[in-house]
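This part of the workshop introduces the protein records we will be handling. As an example, a complete record with its sequence and its structure tokens follows.
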Amino acid sequence: MTMHTAGIHHITAFAGNPQANVDFYASILGLRLVKKTINFDAPEVYHLYFGNEAGSPGTIITFFPFPGSRKGRIGGGQVGITTYVVSPGSLGFWESRLESFGIAVTKASRFSERYLQFEDNEGLRLEIVEREEGRGSGWTFGGIPAAHAIKGFGGAVLFSVNPQKTVDALEHLLGLSKVAEDGEYVRYRSEGDIGNVIDVPLAAVERGSDGAGAVHHIAWRAKDYDQHEEWRSSVEQYGYRPTPVIDRQYFNALYFREAGGILFEIATDPPGFAKDEPADRLGGKLMLPEWYEPHRSQIEANLLPIEVRELEGKRQ
């Protein structure tokens, strides 16, 4: 029996300068910096999480910003485009806002939906779409009206080196439903109301490479720890070799690479980002797992200082 994920839990990408990363996602896009921690495997590098007011599953984009890191190349085996969703009537606001910060915007359409497409400061490909579904964000910043604030992910466009294998995993492993095909893309939908629409180009895409401006992995939701264990068994039965369950402090994780080359993670909804700091002060302090606390002074000395700050674009 096929299990069913509610949709995207988070997306993790590489970046370069950490302050520029904060400026783009917190100051320009208006997302909340919900957690400031480190890459547990490389403590000299931040791990920054941006999302809605609570960092709810389906809203979280995370980054490993490493100054001087090499440039990535977007291609097969990656999330090609990360999709954000806003309420109907908001695209005009976002087009003006992005252009006021000198960000080039192009207009596109897929499956009768209109998209604003653009790149972040590292070249990561993003887009915004309007949809009714999905709860509005309770976080506003930088003059963005609540009515136009980003709700979270609309979904993603997956670039695969073997699209048939990727869509088979979406349908028969993750439990998404095929809802449309237009000769260029096939569309799948999950059970949730956010982070729920996945488009896959039907043509294979030349393999990309890791580095700043590229996505490292996409994570799918498991509702709790028991279901997470069931997911691990399901992945094995499908024929993939998942990692052991790893405690990431704010969720448990397991990883596997699907046959189209994309690194998939399955992550638990609990415990969430208020585990180690009050909900009204998320992202205010560098949070370290207990095994790194004895080294806090050294770790902080090796990290560039960052702050969430208001930026002003040029008036239109």
About this structure: The chain has a mean pLDDT of 97. Residues 8-302 form a domain with the 2,3-Dihydroxybiphenyl 1,2-Dioxygenase; domain 1 fold (CATH 3.10.180.10). Residues 166 and 258 are 7 Å apart (CA to CA). The longest helix spans residues 225-238.
